Amino acid sequence: MRTLISYITASFVFIATSWNVLGKEIAKDENIYEQRMELYQKAEAVSLIPWYYFAAIDQYERNVRLVRRDLPKATGALGIYIPPERWAGPLNRNKHDTNPFTISQFGGLGMDGNGDGVANPNDDEDVIFAIARYLQTYGTDHEHLKIALWDYYQRSKTVDLILGKVKIYKKYKTLQLDDHAFPLPLHANYTYKNTWGDARGWGGRRIHEGTDIFAHYGVPVRATCYGVVELKGWNKYGGWRVGIRDINNTYHYFAHLNGFASNLREGQIVEPGMIIGSVGSSGYGPPGTAGKFPPHLHYGMYKDNGYTEWSFDPYPHLKMWERAEKMQKKQRG
């Protein structure tokens, strides 16, 4: 089990990195979404694979690179990283080979996508066309693409995360899905403070992996992001709870609910502000146990980095979303 210090360090690094990178990206190019969509659609045109598969792979890899120190940072519009040995070919002695012919002889993925005669792993067009060609060798329908993703990543969780993004992009037909909402209506009577990392004793010694937002029974609980419902049901610790996976590989955990929205189901796509349940005091026992603590929403956030998943402090994000929503409300008058 990780120590409290490692949790706090990982959380701080992630939040500082994500805010810093996000700010740089917006400042660097306001048309970044248009650039990416153009690349995805070019790949779709030559492969007949819908653009949202490329968008989902790119978004997954971009967010993995944001939280991994063993991967180089993205320099272009795309976040897809193809390791040198896969780009040049596993038996190619020149791991930095950019010759399309010799790369093909060694079974590498690298290719010349923009017609300049060079297979450059740092060129966005070369990279997206390399991925397109790889996927196309399996087929263009969903089931064959699912197999292609498994063969490439060798991790079922990664395949699930990418296919979840496919569903979201396919539904909304846009890349601009960065909006968030505070989990409770702002007009509700609620209170919260930073409780992440506090000691917990029920069920064994552990730390609190979230922020508790205290409110009355029945106060609506809202989805905080665009995402897919990954989990719904009972847990002896969290009671009635819901887990939502967003497009940034982040898992949003809502626990101790009084109940669920009537139409909520696993696999469903949600968006910021959508009601998913209500505040309660369920948990700390077998199914149906409630009332062992004051009613509140336990809100947790977990990050997947391509290998494992770890908790980080949601409090700064909650404050940011709350503040942004208040400002929007004030601007609307």
What does this structure look like?
The protein is α+β, with helices and mostly antiparallel strands. The chain folds into 2 domains: 31-172, no CATH class; 191-332, Glucose Permease (Domain IIA), CATH 2.70.70. The protein is 39% helix and 18% strand. Strands 1, 4, 5, 6, 7, 8, 9, 10, 11 and 12 form a 10-stranded antiparallel beta sheet that branches. A two-stranded antiparallel sheet has the order 2-3. Helix 2 (32-47) crosses helix 3. The longest helix is centred in the first third of the chain and has 25 residues, at 4-28.
SSE pattern: HHHHHHHHEEEEEEEEEEEEH
Instruction: Extract low-pLDDT stretches.
Output: 1-28
> How many helices in DSSP terms?
9
Q: If you average the pLDDT, what whole number results? A: 90
Principal-axes geometry comes out as elongated
How many domain regions? 2
Main sheet characteristics: 10 strands, antiparallel
In angstroms, what separates the terminal alpha carbons? 49 Å
| Rg for CA atoms | 22 Å
What amount of the residues lies in strands? 15-25%
Extended strand count: 12
Helix/strand/pairing category: alpha+beta
> How much helix is in the residues?
25-40%
